[in-house]
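Budget justification aside, the reviewers requested a transparent look at the raw inputs and outputs of the sequence design task funded under Objective 1. We therefore reproduce one unedited record. The lines immediately below are the structure tokens for a 87-residue chain.
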């Protein structure tokens, strides 16, 4: 049983590491959208309402899936570290 848990955990970590570049691009695009909408005076709730239905579903799946949890956290940390100098 212990071996199965270790294999599962190792597979999850490996998958998360593979997904980091994709999640990083997602975090980067969401931040660009947030900044652009902020300049227009649109808050995050309105930004989500203005998204197409398909985009809303994709966003919900990326943000809410346990599969992407570790990759999301790591990608966000990498994004914040890389962009800390910019401002």
């Amino acid at each position: 049983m212990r071996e199965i848990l270790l294999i599962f955990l190792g597979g999850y970590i490996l998958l998360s590491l593979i997904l980091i570049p994709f999640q990083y691009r997602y975090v980067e695009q969401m931040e660009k959208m947030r900044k652009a909408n902020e300049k227009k005076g649109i808050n995050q709730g309105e930004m989500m309402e203005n998204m197409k239905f398909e985009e809303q579903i994709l966003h919900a799946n990326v943000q809410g899936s346990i599969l992407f949890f570790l990759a999301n956290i790591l990608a966000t940390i990498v994004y914040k570290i890389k962009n800390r100098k910019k401002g």
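Residues 2-83 form one domain. The chain has one domain: 2-83. Computational costs for records of this kind are itemized in the attached budget.
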